[in-house]
Amino acid sequence: MVKMVFSDLDGTFLTPDKIVTAENRNMLDVAYARGVQFVPCTGRNLSDIPSELLAHPSVSYAVCCNGSLVVNAKTGRVLQETPIEKRTVLGLYNELSSLQITFDVFADRRVYTERSRFGYIDTVELSGPTRDFIKAGRTLFDCSMEELMTQTGPVCRLNIFYHTKEDCDLVWDAVDRRAELRRSTSLPCNVEITDACAHKGAALEWLCGFLGVSTADVVAFGDNENDTTMLRAAGDGVAMENAVHACKLAADHLCASCTESGVSRYLMGRLGCLT
After folding, report:
1. Strands 61-64 and 37-40
2. How is residue 14 annotated by DSSP?
3. Whole-angstrom Cα distance, residue 220 to residue 22?
4. 169, 161 in Cβ contact below 8 A?
5. Which residues lie closer than 8 Å to 67 by C-beta, 6 or more apart?
6. How far apart are CA 125 and CA 63, in angstroms?
7. Chain-centre distance of CA 42, in angstroms?
8. Cα 65 from chain centroid (whole Å)
9. Is the pTM of this model over 0.90?
10. Which residues of 143-161 are buried (b: 16+ CB within 10 A; e: fewer)?
11. Tens of pLDDT, residues 67-112
12. For residue 13, what are the contacts with CB-CB under 8 A and spacing of at least 6?
């Protein structure tokens, strides 16, 4: 029996143009009618989740910042938080600051980016809609990273965009040498960094425990490397047709692509409780 659905957004529930298809909207209505909760499970902040999702009655909770935050989607109240220690943020920044990279800090429901590094977003390989979304969501700052750390709340996630394979290797090595951190990715030109204990799979398990729902009664959908822990934690992990190879390897099943409303078609067509 399906009781909860956890779904990544970009490349999974949303099309490449960042919209919710009519089929997926209809699926939310059916899920609500059947008592099935839909949980957006994303690298985004709560404020960057589409308002039509947050307003839908099937959506009571959201997993944000790749599992660092579990929040009440209606009130915004943080239920579970696994931040990165600020001394770790500063140590990583100081090691990498000479590289031509961004160093984006997720805190206070914002994404802080140094003004001097903001232009790098225009030079990395991104689709137009993805680039526009990323740039629109950045809060620029001119102070030092040390000063920023004194001004913000807990740091939930870091994001780094890089241009070259050499810079990629340097960034990944710096993260991997810190046992208190974990990395994943959702784009060819980025790395997403959280506390070692924070990932989508852990957040799924925590929320299920909080609500008294067995993970066996959960279906999860994803398309990228940062979704693999979530697919493994769910009773039924489903990779999109457009998913990367690592995500497909972690899945129990495959479904149609995000452009073909694969989330809706899988749930409405294959799972009897939602037909």
Report:
1. unpaired
2. B
3. 20
4. no
5. 41, 82, 194, 198, 199, 200, 201, 202, 203, 204, 229, 230
6. 27
7. 3
8. 5
9. yes
10. eebeebbeebebbbbbbbb
11. 999 999 999 999 999 999 999 999 999 999 999 999 999 999 999 9
12. 7, 20, 24, 40, 221, 258, 263
